[in-house]
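Let's practice the habit of predicting before peeking. Look at the sequence and jot down your guess about where helices and strands might fall. Then scroll down.
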Amino acid sequence: MTIFPWHETQWALFQKRKAAHQLPHALLFSGVEGIGKRQFADQLIQSVLCENPNEQGIACSVCKHCRLIQATSHPDLKIVEPEEKGKAIKIDQIRELTHFVNQTPQLGAYKFILITKAEQMNESAANAFLKTLEEPAGQSIIILITNRLMSLLATIRSRCQIVSFPIPETKMALTWLAQQNIQQQNLELLLCLAQGAPLRVLEFIEQDELSFRNSLFEQFAGLTKENSDFIAIADKWAKLNLNQILMYLMSWTSDMIKLKEGSGLAHIVHQDMVASLKQISEPYHVKNLFAFWEALKKAYQMIHEQLNPNSQLLIENLLIQWKKL
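Done guessing? Here is the structure:
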């Protein structure tokens, strides 16, 4: 087990707090997806519970505590996450924490509650969780992980110590990626698409994300043709990852706005598509491109607020708006 190089500052801080027995009662880890927040939380929990951590606080991986954690059966660790991908964390899952919090640790000095995708707690679950935060947790330490800090209730944020995980410097990220024995020539482009998150780049490579992006862009570019069938494209896109599609549409529209306004190429995300983006955006006024970007942003917020929109209808309305620009 090793610490990512871009986490070393946070790791050193927590090791000092652990040594001084000053670990906060409630922590909220915030940062973009793919930055390694969950890995850091796992390493921190194992470091605290481990019987024989090394000088840097890295867990030994072989003691009883470490083996129980690896087997996901440690009695002093409770993990809460959405039961299905993209679904909400429900109130029943949060209610189960009450009994756990009130128990004394069975094997060590602390109990840990780890809540991943914390922003996906539904309203009832979030309100129930507030009670757990408000009541003294004794020897419990709660860690929440979120990709969207402001989607959490302000009352939850205010009761936690927020730990921000910024993206690493580009040079550090590219150096680390180059050390992962991957066969990929477009690391800089992938890192840009991943918002600077190195672990997301690894996912992109495994999923052949560039091929997906290029195919999606061809279909998007085809919408500028007079005989384009946007209903057929909407039908095809509705079967794909809606979040992914909206992110790309927002990113391309943002790049087109920047190109229209004369921003330097350094500010363009899809630098390999500059010529095509200029050609697509040529007939459009920048004001209309801004209006389309706002519509995309509204749609993106809608799906992240657990409103479960009709994907087909949502995409059709967006593409109709694009055709009318």
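How did you do? The domain at 208-324 is CATH 1.20.272 (Zinc Finger, Delta Prime; domain 3).
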